Amino acid sequence: MWSGQPHPDEGHPPPLEAVPVSWKSVGPCQSCRESPGALAETSAGEGTQDEEGPAAVAQLDVSRLRSSSMEIREKGSEFLKEELHKAQKELKLKDEECERLSKVREQLERELEELTASLFEEAHKMVREANTKQAASEKQLKEAWGKIDMLQAEVTALKTLVITSTPASPNRELHPQLLSPTKAGPRKGHLRHKSTSSALCPIACPAAGHILTPDKEGREVDTTLFAEFQAWRASPTLDKDSPFLGRVYREDVGPCLDFTAQELSALVRAAVEDNTLTIEPVASHTPPTGKAAAAGYGSTNTCALSGLARACRHRIRLGDSESHYYISPSSRARITAVCNFFTYIRYIQQGLVRQDAEPMFWEVTRLRKEMSLAKLGFFPQEA
């Protein structure tokens, strides 16, 4: 029979406490009347109670486990909610930081774009200024080269002029007192022969009131021309309406600059009058190519003024124009003769020539003679 306490080695859970049950007293007769089947059922009921004890314990353990898991689940849920709340706060802070950094980035991008635009604008401005300065420098350089060429031509012309004399080599034409008695001629009051004195006596210019002395080379001063020159010398000007310059234009300058190409001749004449014409040598036996050929008119084998087939060793440029015109030696000699005349006239106008009227008149006459000879085709071969 089960004693109600399991053996320790059986491993069963401790027994449940006995529930008090009220037992009715049964008489011996009644107990005697119970059949053996009833006793068997009682034994079976006791066995069932022995079997239901471990199941109840297991059910109780399961309930305890369920209650423990519920508590753990609730605590875990609370913990996760707290972590979620913290994560949401951190995420919100991160969003705010991202938004702030995004605004900073946008501001930096705007500033960078503005800075880039200002830098490009400043760079373009510097490039424009540099190009303007370069163009101005090139123009000044060209003008300087033109002035240098003009000054070289003026220096060459000045070398041919007799302006002053030095004690070492006096100019005897400007100082007649240095001439020998045979060349100086008789003085006043010491005339020995009347015929000689009448031939060598000074000639008075009635128009200018100037006494013209005879020339040792047999040259004779035209009183009309000298009077016109004297009137012009009193107030020198480059106005061609004056009688002196009008005659020179009509008799010398016009015919000398009258070339076959009439339109180009007028341009050359205007450039000579304005002192803006430049004569440049051409590289020997080098035909123009590329940009130079496009800018030049004619060729090194054809004169742009006369149209004749000549070897052109020089070219002219009018003012600030980039166009060049190739000219023959004959055309260059005619232009140079006119330029020399205007150079000397400008020197007189500027007061650079310190001479009497007669030597200046003879120099003007010599320059007019050069223009006439150049017009007729007589010019130095090295021209």
Which helices and strands appear, and what pairs or packs with what?
Layout (H helix, E strand, L loop, with lengths): L27 H6 L2 H125 L20 H4 L9 H7 L2 E3 L4 E3 L10 H12 L8 H14 L5 H13 L2 E5 L8 H6 E2 L16 E5 L5 E4 L1 H21 L7 H20 L7
Parallel strand pairs: 4-6
Antiparallel strand pairs: 1-2, 3-5, 5-6
How would you describe this protein?
By secondary structure, this protein is mostly helical. It is 60% helix and 6% strand. The chain is built from ten helices and six strands, in the order ααααββαααβαβββαα. The chain has helices at 28-33, 36-160, 181-184, 194-200, 223-234, 243-256, 262-274, 290-295, 329-349, 357-376, and strands at 203-205, 210-212, 277-281, 296-297, 314-318, 324-327. Strands 3-5-6-4 form a four-stranded mixed β-sheet. It has a two-stranded antiparallel sheet with strand order 1-2. A hairpin with a 5-residue loop joins strand 5 (314-318) and strand 6. Helix 6 (243-256) packs parallel to helix 10 (357-376) and helix 9 packs antiparallel against helix 10. The longest helix is centred in the N-terminal third of the chain and has 125 residues, at 36-160. The protein is rod-shaped. The protein starts with 27 loop residues before the first helix and ends in a 7-residue tail after the last helix.
CA-based shape: rod-shaped
Strand order of the largest sheet: 3-5-6-4
Radius of gyration: 66 Å
Along the chain, the helix and strand elements come as HHHHEEHHHEHEEEHH
Mean pLDDT: 74
Number of helices: 10
Distance between the termini: 162 Å
- State the secondary-structure class: mainly alpha
